[in-house]
Amino acid sequence: MMSKAVEEIKEPTVKKRNPRRVVAGLAGLSGALFLASCAKNAPQDTWQPKGENAQKIDDLQKPVFAIAGVVGVIVLVAVAVVIFRFKDRGQPIPHQTHGKPVFEITMTVIPALILAGVGVFTARTVFDLAKTDDTEMIINVTGQQWWWEYDYPVQDGISAPIISSGQLVIPVGTKVLLRETSRDVIHSYWIPALNGKRDAVPGRVHTLRLEADEPGIYAGQCTEFCGLSHANMRMEAVALSKEDFAKWVDAQLAAYQSPTEGLAKEGEAVFIAQCSRCHQVNGLENANGDPIISAPEENVLAGAAPNLTKFMSRNTFAGATWDLLNKTCRDNVWNATSEEFGAKYLAGVSAECLNVADLRDWLRNAPAKKPMYADPTKLADTGGLTRGMPNLNLTEDDIDKLMAYLLTLK
Amino acid sequence: MFTTGSKFYLGISTLAAIVSVVFLITNDQVALGCVALLGLMVSAGIIAGASLASRDGGETENATTSAAADAAPTSSIWPLALTLGLVVLIVGIVTEPLVFVIGIGVILAALAEWLVQSWSERASADGKFNALARKRILNPLEFPILATAITGVIAISFSRIMLAVSKDGSAILFIVISTLILVAISLFSLKPSIRTTTVAAIATIGALGLVSAGITTFGIGEREELVIAAEEGHYSHQECGEEKSKYYDKHVERTVSSKSGVIATVILKDGELTAKVLGIGEGQKQITVPRANPTSILFQNLDDTDHRLTAYLGKEPVAEGVTEDILTCTQMIGKGGKQVLTIKINKPTFAEGPYTLTVPGIEGTSIEMIVP
User: In sequence order, what are the beta bridge partners of B346?
Assistant: First the structure.
């Protein structure tokens, strides 16, 4: 009776998969993923060092990655062998042994030796990267939601302080020490081609060394989640030859030239009325001839807004998220040879090269372009202070005038 | 139809609803009172529903099959405590986060007590075992929490007494109270046979006396000199002059916890002020300070006499056409002493500068702070 009942139970039909097809599928997927990692245009590729510090990290990470890869392959092959060779085929359970001292000690000592070896080289690299005694230039780097400010203290080759944002300009072959801090939350500074990352923490000063081997632009990204527009907090390090860097310094210290007539002059008036509350332009004066001093601390939670004195000498705006140059001119600068790069970068942004579309969109309604906490009806928690640039409700005429004025700031 | 418990809580809920209506009619400022009363109505209603649903924990399906369920449940204060917790929670939503957190604490405590009590009363047919089971689960939680709460209340009461009596009186009172406690404990230890109820009674009377005195002195307020000091800002007003300040320099900070967060170390040595700047080195007479960002500077006095570091941070308007220097400074520190000075400058140097660091009493030496 019982056996009959058992016979009546039909085994469920299981569609058997062809193991070869599964392996082929997995191999195909792995290959596709591997090939996807070989992007041609990858400015933040951590495997392409362009400076001494990044090279030290690269010299460490490649052998460590190789060792990890070899260990990983050995472990995976061993697992695969065990899975396939000792698959349950109904064979009796083999004799169980407990304890193989020689094998266990070997399997403990080998990983310990590998880790100790890696540890020694890692510690040496960490101490190397933390050195500050051979500094040749210092730059203060201050992070805030969602852009970076750079100020250059007075030092050899810089006779008066320089303040900039978005693009960090450095001379090639110079050991530059960044002194990082933050005005609001924790950010992290990272230019992969030049060094590892370092947190910028409010109330603290952390140091990071950069040195670029060749002229060019090196892209980076804030790597500590810092709020709504964290993904739009980018940065670029621009390396110039020492001669070109000296020219850049001279240009940054050149006195402000107020436009004398036309649309740019009208744009200056719009700027004074609408923008100078937060944005400083050194040298800008009111009708009485008094300098106009911005007061970002009264409008922005971080207490700062980018200084726009030499705005068009940079190639980016809004936290280096958008280019000030249109695509043709941008490619012209980015793809320039080492010899040509300095002259092309120092030319700044001309009317012909301006990325009109993105800058107009930004001036028309900044929070619509880059997510920010700037809605005036939702600022109760910050006492009316915004995080980022609010919508100024500028008219199209005002935007035309402002664009004309901004083009004069270089 | 209605169980005894549900009638009780439905009564509270109805009463709260009636009082809410009366309160609305008779008062102008009704928001908070209405929230509390309507909260009481809702939370008592919820407890009434729970009581009704569980039939007061009375007759259940198992009543006829389990000896443990024979005994009727005892009365419990925890549903009432839960109601109170819900009211506090609701009031906390519209008032202070702390009140909200207290509400959560009361709710969790009431739920834990209620659940364990209900379970332990039906754990077995043996009442003594049930009581023991309850204790074994809840006492490890109850005792530390109660002890913390009682200690907190006594400490706050004691602090109120100390702040109310005169400075000398507080010292005498401290000695007297601590001596009394020491004597009492010594006597108890000499008489091991003393009944625990006697010890508990004496401790309770002492604690109640202390709390009563604390409440009374809280009503009286702090002694006059403390009130005057708070009004005149003795402990916050910096006197950045050459002379030692009576209040600001009274208790000099001698430790520096964050040396690595400073942008520069300013050193006074042989009457000369120099800065050691991170990344640049020693002997600097100029430091760059980021605009509108709190920045720390470490002052180290290597001179033989006491000195302070004073920062000039521009001017601020105090009346129509009248401005005053903005100064901030360290305390007066002795030889070898260190202290951090945190400054924030909102305007660039070309607007209000030069900003300087000086040592009052030492002329001709300063550090310039440049704000880009």
Answer: none
